[in-house]
Every structure is written in structure tokens, then in C-alpha cells.
Amino acid sequence: MKLRKVDPKKIHVPEVRVTAQMDEDTARQFEASVQAVGVDDPIKVYEVEGELWLSDGLHRLQQAIRLGMPTVDAYVKEGTKVDVLCNNLMSGHMRGKHPLSGMVKVIEELWMVHRLGPEEIVKRTGMTRDHVEDIMLISQLTPMVRAAVDDSALNFSQAKALTRIKDPVAQETVYGQWQLARWPARELNEFITDVLRLREAPPPGPPPAPPPPPAPLKCFYCGGGYDVSQLHNPNTCLSCSGILVAANAQARAEIAAEAAKKQE
Q1: Beta strand spans in the chain (E)
Q2: How far, in Å, CA of 160 to CA of 133, rounded?
Q3: In 5, 80, 116, 132, which residue has its Cα 20 to 30 A from 176's Cα atom?
């Protein structure tokens, strides 16, 4: 990386990048400092196919252009668009003062456009794998919820909590509840836990027990128990019914007496 004097107007700024935010008072002080002593901290750029692309120092570059400075000190290194994004992400992450939306967009660009996996992003930025994977999940929130991330309405912890809900309709429903309640991350996580518990399907119950065998039916004439398929029930008048009962009893008595004789 070489220190060079560079025309600030010839430095390209990536559309997707991490940019530190300043409040109005800090921005005024920064502007006064550059106006008084110039840009004493060189910006960082990469030379990509003959063009200069900014990786770190957007506020300094903007002030140099606004003040009409012919040149600005810059560390220049040959590289690729991926180098520009990774260095920008690393610089922003190390400073810790940047909106979540910028990090989500840069990691999404590295992942979806340049096909870098989490391991490669971790290797080139120094970020933890868990943090990179969490931001990848945040980038896949529904458009409605993602817009809240881009507008900085949701912070990292709140956005991460919403990634627990995979169903898009349910995710946006919970986000709508959050808009009304404005829970901090802990309460939002508790609410999501309750929602997910209610959405879980109940465990399958035990299979139904087999039906009990049919109870035997008693024969009116002999008093024995039989299956229903073994019984007949013709219409019988009272007189015939009495005759049949008596005849049946007499026949059974004769059969019993005959059996007793055979045993003697």
C-alpha cells in the first residue's frame, strides 16, 4: 500500500458500503477541523482495473471535495471490488460506529453477488462467524421487515430476534406487533418464544385402542351365550313361545337322562 497524492474527484465511492454516522455537532466540528488543518489522516483506496475506489474515509473525501482541495493523501493498493468491500467492512466493524443497514448490504453484496461464503468473509474481515451468519439471516427478512433494518428502526438484536420466525406472514405479523409495543430485544424475544410455542403442532397422540369384543347374547330358550351371528329371532306368539320353551326343556332333559344311562 503506497501513500500518494490523489485528486479527490477521481475517487469512486461504492454504492454499497459501511459508512460511519455523525450527529450534527460532530459533523460541524469535523468540518471545521478539515478546513483548518486539512485531511491529516490519509484515506484508503484500491486501484481496480485502473480506477480508484474508496474503501475507508468517506467523510474526509467529501470534505476535501467540498473545500475544493486539488489533492488528498491516500493509501493506494491494487485489488478488486471484493477487496474494497471487505476492507470497508473490516474498517467499519473495528470502529464500531456504523448503522446495521450498511453491514447487511455489504455482506449481502459479498454473499449474493460475489459468492463469498461466511468462512471467506470471516477470513477477510476479522468478524466472527456467528456475527456474519446472523447478518446473512437478517438480509433474508421479508421486504417489510428488511426496510425497517435499512431505516435503522430495528437494531441488530431486534432484527436477529425476528429471524427466528421463518414464516413470512407470521414474521410480518410479529413485526406489526412490535411497531405498536416497541419492545426492546429481550421482550421481543420472549414474545416470539410464545408465538412459536403456540404455532408448534401438538405431538401425535397414541393410536386408538382396538374395540372390545362384542358381549355374548343370551339365548331365550336354552340360556346359553352366543355371538349375534349365531342367533335367529323369528316372530313368535306367546302360545308358541311357551310350547317351544317347554319342548326345548323336555328335549334337554331327555338328552341329559340318556347321557346319564350311558355313563352307568
Answers
A1: 2-6, 11-12, 43-48, 51-56, 72-78, 217-218, 225-226
A2: 10
A3: 132
DSSP 2: E
Q: Whole-model pTM?
A: 0.67
Q: Are 93 and 125 in contact (CB under 8 A)?
A: yes
3-state secondary structure string, 36-80? HHCCCCCEEEEEECCEEEEEECHHHHHHHHHCCCCCEEEEEEECC
Q: Answer whether 6's CB lies under 8 Å from 38's CB.
A: no
Q: Looking at the chain, how many residues does it have? A: 264
- Over residues 136-187, the pLDDT tens digits come to 999 999 999 999 998 889 999 999 999 999 999 999 999 999 999 999 999 9
- pLDDT at position 234 is 64
Residue 263 cell numbers, joined: 355313563
Q: What is the DSSP letter of 6?
A: E
C-alpha radius of gyration, the chain, whole number: 43
Distance separating the N- and C-terminal Cα atoms of the chain = 126
- The secondary structure element, H or E, covering residue 240 is helix 238-263
Classify the phi-psi angles of 37: left when phi > 0, otherwise alpha if psi is within -120 to 50, otherwise beta.
Answer: alpha
Residues 122-136 pLDDT 10s: 999 999 999 999 999
Name the 3-class secondary structure at 225.
strand
Rounded Cα distance, 63 and 70, in Å? 12
**Joined grid coordinates for residue 58:** 468517506
Per the structure block, which three cell numbers stand in for 61? 473525501
Pairwise CA distance, residues 229 & 218, whole Å: 12
CA distance 55 to 46: 7
If one counts every other C-beta atom within 10 angstroms of the C-beta of residue 192, the result is 21
